[in-house]
Amino acid sequence: MAEQQPVSTNGRAGGDDASNGVLEQLTDDQLRWIYQIMRRIRRFEETAEEAFRAAKMRGALHFYIGEEATATGVCAALDDGDFITSTHRGHGHCIAKGARMDKMMAELFGRSTGYCGGKGGSMHIADIELGNLGANGIVGAGIPIATGAALGSKLRKDGKVTVAFFGDGAGPTGAFHEGVNVAATMNLPAVFVCENNQYGMATHADFANAAAIHNRGPAYGIPSASIDGNDIFEVYATAKTAIDRARRGEGPTLIEARTYRQKGHTVLDQKNYRTKEEIAEWVARDPIERFVTAVNESERLDEDDFQAIDGQIECEIEHAVAFAEASPWPTVDVIERDVYVE
Question: Cα separation of 283 and 265, whole Å?
Answer without folding.
Answer: 16
